[in-house]
Amino acid sequence: MERFKSLSEIKNAFANGSTDLEKLVDFYLNRIEEKKHLNAFLEVWADEAKLSAKKIQQKINDGTAGKLAGMVIGIKDNICYKGHKVSASSKILSNFTSLYSATAVEKLLAEDAIIIGRLNCDEFAMGSSNENSAFGNVLNDVDNSRVPGGSSGGAAVAVQANLCLAALGSDTGGSVRQPAALTGTFGLKPTYGRISRWGLIAYASSFDIIGPITQSIEDSKLLLEVMAGKDEYDATSSSNKNIEYSKQVSENKKFRFAVIKEAIELDGINSEVKSATEDLIEQLKKDGHLVEMVSVPELSAMIPVYYTLTTAEASSNLSRFTGMHYGYRTKNGKDLESTIRKSRSEGFGAEVKRRIMLGTFVLSVGYYDAYYTKAQKVRRLVANRTAKIFEQYDFILSPTSPSTAFKIGEKSNDPMAMYLADIFCVHANIAGIPALSFPFANDSNNLPIGMQLMANHFEESKLLSMVENIRPIL
Amino acid sequence: MREVDYSRYEPVIGLEVHAQMLTKSKAYCSDAYDYGASANTDVSPISLGHPGTLPMHNVEVIRFAIKMGLACNCSITENQHYARKNYFYADLPKGYQITQDKTPICTGGHIELKFKDGKSKVINITRIHMEEDAGKSFHDQDVYDSLIDLNRAGVPLIEIVSEPDIRSGEEAHLYLSEIRKLLMYLDICDGNMEEGSMRCDANISVRLKGTEKFGTRVEVKNMNSFSNVKRAIDFEIKRQIDAIENAETISMETRTFDAIKGITISMRTKEGASDYRYFPEPDLPPIHISQSFIDEVQKQMPALPKDLYDKFTKQYGLNDYDASVLTDDKSTAIYFEEIIQHTTNVKSAANWLMVNVRSYLNDQALDLNQFALNPTQIAEIIQLIDEGKVSHSAASQKIFPEFIKQSDKTVLQIAQELNLLQESNTDELQKWIDVVLSKFPEKIIEYKNGKQNLLALFMGEVMKLSKGKADPKMASKMLKETLDKN
């Protein structure tokens, strides 16, 4: 079977009779089996997918199918699906089954998408290489000795290796975009609140957002359109009405691009990534767009701000995992305190513990103002700076990550180096704006280089349409 | 042993009152909550703290908290946010409680206490904030395990914090009664301390009178009735004074009240106090309270006890005692107001409610809302007495109890059936008078010779003969006339 890159290609194939949904599902199930060594899927719901394929094929035949009929999708293992296991790739939630479905999942199902399985990730979405999963690494399909990025590593590789058409990830500080960049896929982080967080296992509530990883912009649009909208179950979800992304036509308008000077000049940016960025700038200029350097002196503060605030929220969000009511419970507990202490010590991995401790520290009496309050202030400064930039520019351009896919183990003992992998990504989460990573070039090792565009709040349409006009140099 | 002069000391007391809100659903989700429901049935993924769940806004709680704030003369905070209070406990499924920290919904109010001797005192309110309840732990129901019931988890509370203005157990009791009265008038809490829908912690210290500096503060918890609050505080005051007199140091600690022994017992010292790591709740957007919203809540405010007290004394002319008894709880006040819609005899309405109805309800251990007779029916009884158709004693001793049993009948029917309708038919009365007088010719002469008190004897005989049915007023008038004619 040929490789389908978008739902419309699949629909065409259905229409001309070259395949049908049941065959398609079988195809993906075979691919998953063939590519098992990548460790992208934690669980495959094969029987259920086949059954759905049959039902939805009937709807297609009857002309009553939803707009995602034909889409086979995997979900990151931190998104709840009623009656299915969800573990956030953590021992502490091993064998936990969700009692309800995430709003995003409900919306996909309502439009006849098929959810084929749950995808490996860094534990509780904390990581940039998928090396922090309790259920093993995920391998990059281009080079199995390299990481796929993280935390939505399984989601990115599933799409990269064509194990499903698209996947849902979650993005707290680049967890959709950075793995998308490292696997040559499209990763969209929507505006904060654009998609309900109900059913997304929280890492950092004021940063988290579900985002699609796809093989085409058109699928990003479609998935965003289906999932976006106000949800009574998420008080932080936005009621902004502009959600008809798939109807937006690509315009040939001339836009203004801001390139963050400090990003391009960053120490440690890979030279091939840097030159690809320059190539993109050239292309945009050639196409008649305005591209200018702007200074964002706060860039160096972004990683500290991000880790201060996200770990603070995480330390509280992860307090519910105690072994008391569900999930993993130690066998060595003697009383309440030792049961909670040991369940958490035995259930959480090292990176999660590191972040819980960091977050607990920054919220402690005596340190709160010096860290948490100060970080909140800098978050405000970044938001103000970003708003200022968007007064003059349509997009902010940067590479998605300073490097291409790195070797497994290369950074796992150096958390600071690992944290820098997200330096260009965290900006969008700090400011709550939409951002997209798209494949633009390959480096000399044939590893994908992703570029990132950020736009103002709720300007996903403009962002997605613009990227459709960019010509990758592959 | 040296005699201790307790009067040299001044207790300083502040109360923290937690009140469960009578909202239809829990604070941050749509679960119902009924006290006494089977364990772990009023729950959902939200109140169980399952992964991926988020709290929801409950505007009703905000409205309730503002009502209490307005009733306590507080300022309402325009811009506020929720906060998380983090601590680990088995009955706190999320590992944090959603509460308010730096921006409580109401600040800076006061309420006035009225003492029996007519004096009054103002107690200042520091703040009122919104929060959610935890579940319940049971450590004594199973031999091996502690058991958890999460029905209560997420039930909305408001916490009302007073300034340290309270000076005795009695004042604390009065303050608490006043708070309870307001909560119940506002219909936002059922005020039941035994079931825990209203709970109270006290911060207590003592100092020598005339000194400015506060003594070391001790927090007392688990006082689950009004009388226990008073007992616990009085005990703790004495304990602290004794300790100071014996040159012992009072440590800053939390103590629990043992109601059986009547003493407070140390639970934990504050030295290893938990750091709750409060921070703004990121799952709920900040709350903006507009003036128009406050105005809307203000419009929904019922009359408060103070307003009704003023109305009852000034407009209806009741005395202070009657007015305060009748405004003590909302249902009595409403019931009273309804009675006097149907009768102009305000004093009689007050007496019937305060004496007859109340003692019946006390005997039967019922609430006014479980009472078989409605206010109109009480007004009917009063009317029947006022029209002279029944005597007051017949009405209260015989008709009232029967009426309660047969409330579908009219009071007139009951009186007829019991044969208690007074005779005011003059022919009938005259017959009885004549019969009586014919029995006592000598007494008539004595009467005529000035022994006026014999009239009572004649009246008694008339009443006896009529089996109590003679209208005493009319009978006495006719009796006199008959005697004068003779």
Task: Explain how this protein is built.
The complex is a heterodimer of chains A (474) and B (486). In chain A, 39% of the residues lie in helices and 12% in strands. By secondary structure, chain A is α/β, with parallel strands linked by helices. Chain A has a domain at 7-247: Amidase signature (AS) domain (Amidase signature (AS) enzymes, Alpha-Beta Complex). Chain B has 486 residues and is an alpha+beta fold. Chain B has 3 domains: 6-293, no CATH class; 303-417, no CATH class; 426-485, Arc Repressor Mutant, subunit A, CATH 1.10.10. In chain B, the strands form 4 sheets. Chain B has a 9-stranded mixed sheet. Chain B starts with 8 loop residues before the first strand and ends with a helix. The interface between A and B is large, with 46 and 31 residues.
Number of domains of chain B: 3
- Percent helix range of chain B: 25-40%
In oligomeric terms, what are we looking at?
heterodimer
Q: Radius of gyration of chain B over alpha carbons?
A: 30 Å
Proportion of strand residues of chain B: 15-25%
SSE layout and pairing:
The complex is a heterodimer of chains A (474) and B (486).
Chain A: H1 7-15, H2 21-34, E1 41-44, H3 46-62, E2 72-76, H4 103-110, E3 114-119, H5 153-160, E4 166-170, H6 177-183, E5 186-189, E6 210-214, H7 217-227, E7 256-260, H8 261-264, H9 271-286, E8 290-294, H10 299-317, H11 336-347, H12 350-362, H13 368-392, E9 395-399, H14 415-420, H15 426-431, E10 435-442, E11 448-454, H16 460-468
Parallel strand pairs in A: 2-3, 2-4, 7-8, 7-9
Antiparallel strand pairs in A: 1-3, 4-6, 5-6, 5-10, 9-11, 10-11
Helix pairs in contact in A: 2-3, 5-6, 7-16, 10-12, 10-13
Chain B: E1 9-20, H1 59-71, E2 75-76, E3 79-80, E4 83-86, E5 96-99, E6 106-114, E7 120-132, E8 136-138, E9 147-149, E10 156-162, H2 169-185, E11 198-208, E12 218-221, H3 226-245, E13 253-258, E14 263-269, E15 279-280, E16 287-288, H4 291-300, H5 305-315, H6 320-326, H7 330-339, H8 346-364, H9 375-386, H10 392-405, H11 411-417, H12 426-439, H13 441-448, H14 454-465, H15 472-485
Parallel strand pairs in B: 12-13
Antiparallel strand pairs in B: 1-10, 1-11, 2-6, 3-16, 4-5, 4-15, 6-7, 7-10, 8-9, 11-12, 13-14
